[in-house]
Amino acid sequence: MNYTFENKNIHIRHFNFYYLSIFIFLLIYVYLVFLFPSVIIPFIFLGFLLLILLYLIRKQKFENRKETILLYLFTSGFYGLLIVISHLIFIQNPETDYFFAKDTLTFFKVGQHLGNKDITDIYKYDLSIFNYTDFYFYAIISGIIYKIGLIFHCNDYHFLLVLFNALLGGLTISLTFKCACVERENKFSSFIWFILFSPILLNSTILLRDIFITLIYTWIYLYVITDHCRNRLFKIGLLVIFSFFLRPENGLFALSFIFLWLWSKRDQFSKKAKFAIYIGIFIILMLLIPYVLNVTTNTLSAYNERDLSIASEDSMGAMVKRLPIPINYIGAFMFLQIMPFPFYQFLLTENGGIITILTIISPFYWIYLLAVTFISLWINKAKILKFNNLSFWTLLLCLLYVVLIANGETNVRRAMPVYPIIFTIYLIYKNYLSQNFKFNIARSSVIAMLFLNLVYLSIKFI
């Protein structure tokens, strides 16, 4: 079956994506039946709730809605299979064992602690055991999911919590597809690459809040680019609040999307409305600047200390951070884009191993995506500013976010929240280049990445 829609660039050849999506989701269902039967009902219940949410976020044409659901099933099913494998290999005792990221132990214990409380008490601060003031909303969600597991007599709460992250990963991909539908650039083959080789894959298989923040940012961006949206600013405002209680610095930066939308619509406001908006923004900034500076300084300092503590003195990341300003900012940004570096780095990570093998291709894929985006912008700047002005300013905003993150901690998952947005912009900009041009960029990107890795290995071991 080929999906081909008028004015849409959707072509699925060589395989039927519909049946593949159903097969992947049924496969994880079979695994759960035989290996983790107590997880099945709460997993399906949570998956169905998110599916309803996906439908309600923004209604689409029937054809696009069908594709969105298929992407949700395929992505969450595929990520779920990886979780099954990692769980069987690495997790014997969820209070001491973890896959890839040690921070998952804290989030599991917080969810377990809150989930054992009465449902009416989950939302209350209880800092006697954990200090979760900087991820309050995520702690509440984890506690509620844990409570759902108790209701359905689930025997492996850690597994259920991580599976919920796989569902969030599927929802994030589906919302990204909705953004692409708004921009009329929803090509399925591009999404398959993004599902397999973007940082969303790895971070949807571990119990961390980054995939939740990525979902919120993608959701906000969908509201920003949608032409007709009731109560837009109210909805974006709620999402900003949610992101703040997931990670305060992400909530503060999410405010910039409100300013971005107001800037994009400035020509549609009357002079009085513009004046009122500018005064309102000025007042908000004056009230927030001291707090923003304090949070930003403390966060970047903490990230930087953590980054240097886990990096060896001769590592490229440590060397880049010692360069003079602004070279260190540019260098840190570029270094983050080629992570993992060297490309096999995650394979050597404690409690990672063979499960992270897909991350080998990630830096090659991502550097190609950025190269196409930047080169297309450079060549076609006039056209882009005329026909896709909002995408240009959004890209600058995302780059600012990545630069700030890179100079705090060169950790891909910290920068990941804006990656679906950058990917959507890439889908627009790549159409300004010929197929042959993009092939040459791909070849050059691969050669450049291989060269950098070879140089690094030569310096390190020779």
Labels describing this entry:
462 residues; mainly alpha; 0% strand
Report on the architecture of this protein.
The chain is 70% helix and 0% strand. The chain is mainly alpha-helical and 462 residues long. It starts with 16 loop residues before the first helix and ends with a helix. Mean pLDDT is 78; it is low at 1-15.
Q: CA-to-CA gap between the ends?
A: 54 Å
Number of alpha- plus pi-helical segments: 20
Question: Could you give the order of the helices and strands?
Answer: HHHHHHHHHHHHHHHHHHHH
Radius of gyration from CA coordinates? 22 Å
Could you say which structural class the secondary elements and strand pairing correspond to? mainly alpha
What is the topology?
Elements: H1 17-35, H2 40-57, H3 62-90, H4 104-115, H5 136-151, H6 157-182, H7 188-197, H8 200-203, H9 210-225, H10 232-246, H11 248-264, H12 271-310, H13 316-321, H14 327-337, H15 362-379, H16 381-387, H17 389-406, H18 412-415, H19 419-429, H20 435-461
Helix pairs in contact: 1-3, 2-6, 3-6, 4-5, 5-6, 5-10, 6-9, 6-19, 9-10, 9-11, 10-11, 11-12, 11-17, 14-17, 15-19, 15-20, 16-17, 17-19
Write a brief caption for the model.
With 462 residues, this protein is mostly helical. It contains 20 helices and no strands.
